[in-house]
Design goal:
Residues 158-439 form the Exonuclease VII large subunit C-terminal domain. Its main location: cytoplasm. GO terms for molecular function: exodeoxyribonuclease VII activity; nucleic acid binding. It is an enzyme of class 3 (hydrolase). Residues 24-131 form the OB-fold nucleic acid binding domain. With 470 residues, the chain is α/β, with parallel strands linked by helices. The protein folds into three domains: 24-70 and 78-147, OB fold (Dihydrolipoamide Acetyltransferase, E2P); 158-287, Rossmann fold; 325-427. 53% of the residues lie in helices and 16% in strands. Strands 1-2-3-5-4 form a five-stranded mixed β-barrel. It has a five-stranded parallel beta sheet with strand order 7-6-8-9-10.
Length: 470
């Protein structure tokens, strides 16, 4: 058999005839035969799916590009790559089983354990036939990634930071991050529109599933950050979906952005059993968009009930004070009437005494006594009228004083409520300022490149609109 490569002529030897060349097909056939003999068995391999072409119709095959890459201690990247094929009938059996075990379909970026057999074709080169998949390896790798993400967030204090933020007593100004066409967003808006309360909802569109969803949601948060003074809370909602659709909400960058956001973030991403990492870093995690709407409605209903209780209590106190004043006025009126009657009786008794005395004196003295009696009667009437007028003036003065006292009491209550509201607002501003300072201290250690975007987000926004206390 002639050699497979050309040899250099040895020195001091006459030139030999050139070796016979092999046809390419024969060379590749020998390579195929050697690989078939050497690697006749199948092998379990660990690899990452770099590219995947799923079957587009029944009977089509699934084509993959598998890679194996890591970094050495010096930072050099080592990489191996091979083409692989899952034939149609085998794909129809392996793909559903893999989805049932892992909750997701085969897709680029997954680390998998495959049983493969080496194949070599003269025209298409080296490839791997996939014979089996071990889903337990992929499930373990996803759980490990999730655990690493939670540990990183815990180390940076982002799991509990949102829960320490104060949520407004009656949140009605909401920034909603969702897809405009999502069924969950439509259910959320319908639930709010059917209530008796008025909400100001600002939709910030974002992708809610897929590999681009984390970056899209972070961009929406960055859009809200400079306008946060106009909102009470941020809501992240989406409709229902499979476990695969929730992978975007296990992203470390998205979870960290939610945990570090200066406003309370409420999530309702449409899952019943699973809990995404974003739910762990959010202020309040609810199951569905409808549950988020009910949460806000219930909070306003409880606030409304509290205000109704305060109003009833104020009404009871005011009615009690008015009733006490009316009772006091009636007592004063009875006292005035009794005093007038007593004085009149005394004057009548004195008159009768003088009449009896006058019967024994001359007529002139009697006339004089009559004149005195007349003057006394007029004086008594005037005194009674003056006393009655004085009592009436005192009653009017007391009524005005009572009304002024009631108004001052009402004004003091209003001022106390205003001071309480100002103190709450001032405390919220201080807490927000401290959170911003803490975030400014923590942020440079997390991502130096993102600091520029964060500082740009702190530029002064439009002045806040006048907001009344609900």
């Amino acid at each position: 058999m002639p050699p497979l490569f050309n040899r250099r002529p040895e020195p001091n030897l006459p030139p030999s005839r050139p070796p016979l060349a092999l046809p390419l097909a024969e060379l590749l056939l020998r390579v195929k035969q050697t690989l078939t003999d050497r690697f006749a068995d199948s092998y379990w391999v660990l690899a990452e799916i770099a590219e995947l072409t799923a079957p587009r119709h029944d009977g089509a095959h699934c084509y993959l590009t598998l890679t194996d890459q890591h970094r050495t201690g010096r930072g050099a990247e080592l990489k191996a790559q091979a083409r692989a094929t899952i034939w149609s009938q085998r794909y129809q059996a392996l793909a559903p089983a893999f989805y049932e075990a892992t909750g997701q379909e085969l897709q680029p970026g997954l680390k998998v354990m495959l049983r493969v057999q080496i194949k070599f074709h003269e025209q298409y080169g080296l490839s791997l036939d996939v014979l089996a998949l071990d889903p337990t390896y992929t499930v373990g790798d996803l759980a490990r990634q999730r655990l690493d993400t939670v540990r990183k967030l815990t180390a940076k204090g982002l799991l509990e930071r949102q829960k320490r933020l104060p949520l407004a007593i009656g949140p009605q100004r909401l920034a909603v991050i969702s897809s405009p066409t999502a069924a969950g967003f439509q259910d959320f808006m319908q639930q709010l529109s059917e209530s008796v309360y008025d909400f100001s909802v600002t939709l910030v569109p974002a992708l809610m599933q897929g590999t681009e969803a984390p970056a899209s949601i972070r961009a929406a948060l960055d859009h809200i950050r400079p306008q946060r003074r106009y909102f009470d809370a941020v809501v992240i909602i989406r409709g229902g979906g499979g476990k695969t659709d929730l992978l975007a909400f296990d992203d470390y960058g998205l979870a960290a952005a939610v945990g570090a956001f200066p406003l309370p973030v409420i999530t309702g991403i449409g899952h019943e059993r699973d809990e995404a990492v974003v739910d762990l870093t959010a202020h309040t995690a609810l199951k569905t968009p409808t549950a988020v709407a009910i949460f806000f409605l219930d909070r306003l209903a409880r606030l409304d009930a509290a205000f109704d209780g305060y109003a009833e209590r104020i009404q009871e106190l005011a009615f009690g004070q008015v009733q006490n004043a009316a009772d006091q006025l009636r007592r004063l009126a009875r006292h005035t009437q009794q005093a007038a009657q007593t004085q009149f009786a005394e004057q009548r008794t004195l008159l009768h005494q003088r009449i009896r005395q006058a019967a024994t004196v001359p007529r002139a003295q009697l006339r004089q006594q009559h004149r005195i009696l007349d003057r006394t009667r007029h004086s008594a009437q005037r005194a009674a009228q003056q006393a009655l007028a004085g009592q009436q003036r005192q009653l009017r003065t007391f009524g005005r004083a009572l009304a002024q006292r009631f108004r001052r009491h009402q004004q003091r209550r209003q001022l106390q409520l205003l001071r309480r509201r100002y103190q709450l607002q001032l405390a919220a501003e201080r807490l927000l300022h401290r959170a911003e300072l803490r975030l400014a201290q923590l942020w440079p250690a997390a991502q130096p490149e993102a600091l520029g975007g964060f500082l740009a987000g702190l530029t002064p926004a439009l002045p806040p609109s006048d907001a009344s206390f609900s």
